[in-house]
Design a protein that fits this description.
Blueprint lengths: L5 H10 L4 E5 L2 H16 L6 E5 L4 H17 L3 E2 L4 H5 L6
Parallel strand pairs: 1-2, 2-3
Length: about 90
Amino acid sequence: SAAIRPETVCEYEEVGYTYLKFVVATEEDAEEALEAVDIYRAAGFAGPVYLMPVGGVESVYALNSRTVAELAMKHGLRYSDRLQVPLFSNAWGT
């Protein structure tokens, strides 16, 4: 994919704090994210990697958040929550 640029990310890592974050809606999204992580790691990227559930609508977020958290734990990645969804129902300006 044109979006996967390990050389560029490794250059960013040389000059400051760098991390990767993937938004996950489906099992296929998670598989693609894990494949990308392997490519970045093989290129030397050592920073943290986050998985974040797709958000926007509270019902979709609620169904997906635990699954994404479990995937992150299973693969040694970090979980990134969308606090604006459970706290403010993703209201404008949050």
